[in-house]
Amino acid sequence: MSPSCVAVEQQPLCLRGPLNQQPLRPVAPGVLSDGDTFWPVVDGIPFLRTGRELLRAEVLAALKRGDRRLALAHLLRDQDDWARSPPPDLDQTLAVVDGVSAGTLGLRKAMEQLHFGPVAHYFSHRWSAPTFLSALGLLAQHWDSPPCVVEIACGIGQVLREVVQRGTAGVGVDVVFAKLWLAHHFVVPEAGLVCADATVALPMAPIAGSAVLCHDALYFLLEKRRVLSEMRRVASSSGRVLVGHAHNRLVDQRGIGGVPLTPEEYAALLPGAACYDDSDFVTAFLEGTPAPARAPMALGRAEALCFSASGGPALGSIDFGQPKPGARLKPNPLLVERNGLLQPFWPAPGLADEYACASYLGGHPSLSADLLARAASGLVDDEIALLARRRLLLDLPERW
C-alpha cells in the first residue's frame, strides 16, 4: 500500500515511523505500519508517541474489536511528564468522549474533566496572554509566505488557528494526545495533527520552505539539540526555524518548571540565528513596529528569548493583529469592570503573576452595547480592529 500522506489543506504530510523513519502505510482501518511497528490513528490523529507500548497495545486491541470509543478514552488519559494532576479514570474519560461527541461539552469543561489542572487556565485565556502575542509577533516578523507552518508542542492549536484562518496550512505536533484531540474538535479542525515526541524524532518528511515553530516549550524539552536538529530537517534548507518564549536561566521564573538555558547557550544551539527579547515581540504585535535583534550577551536580563534561523529578512508579510473579514468578535471574558474601567481578572494567582506585564488589557472604558453588536455582526471597522489587536475583543471558538 502507498505511504500515508495526510492532506493538510493543499500540503501533503508524509508520515514516517518515529523509530525507524520508514514511511507509514495504512494496513487496516485506523492502523498504520512502518514495517516494524503498528501505530493507531483515532479521530484522524496518528498516535506515534514512543515509550507507550502498553497503551499502544490497548488502543490497537480496542480498534481491532471495533471499539473506537474505548480506544479514544485510553489515549485521552495519557499525559506528559510535567502533569500536576492524575488523569481521570476510564469512566470519567468515556463521559468526556460522549459529551464532546454529543455537543453538550465545551472546551473549558472538557479540559476540566480531563484533569488539565493549571494548564486549563493557561489554554482558556491564552488568546490574551503576552506569550501568545509574542508568538504571533515572531511569526509575522519572519513570515516567508511558507506553504505550511509546523508547530512543535502546539497544545490545543491556538497559534495554528491564526495561521489557518489566514490561508496557510498548519501542522501540529504534541506529546499529549488529549490536547490534539481538543484542537481538532474545538480550535483548528483544518490542521494536520500528530501525537509524537519531538525529543525522539519528528515523524514526517521535510516540507520545503516551511516555518517550523516551537513556542513557550523548548525550555521544557531535555533533548534540545535533537529537537532543533529535527526542526531544521523538516524546515529544509529553504525553510525557517523559529523558537519563541524560551525561558532564560539567568532570570527568576517564579516557580515555572522546565530546564531553561542562558541566552548564549540557546544561541550556541542555533548558530547564525537572529536573537530577540521575547517581550519586544509583544510590543511589535501591539504597535506594528519591528522587534530589534540583539546580541545574546545583551539579553541577560530578558525573561524569555526568541530566535529565528535563518536570521535573514522575511520574504513575505502578514498581520495577525488584523481580524479576518467577517470575524464575529466577542468581549474578552477575562476582563471585568472596576470603577468604570476594564481590568483583567486572572483565574489563578500563578497566571496573574506570570502575566503581570499584560498592561495592554487594563484601564480601558467599558465597551458600548452598540460597539459589541457591531463586532458580533462581523463588521471590522478601524475601532473594532484596534480593540481586537489589544485583545479587548476576541475571535473565540464557537464552543469555548
UniProtKB/TrEMBL annotation:
Residues 151-242 form the Methyltransferase type domain. Coiled coil: none annotated. Pfam families: Methyltransf_11. GO terms for molecular function: methyltransferase activity. Keywords: Methyltransferase, Transferase. One of its GO terms (biological process) is methylation. This is Methyltransferase domain-containing protein.
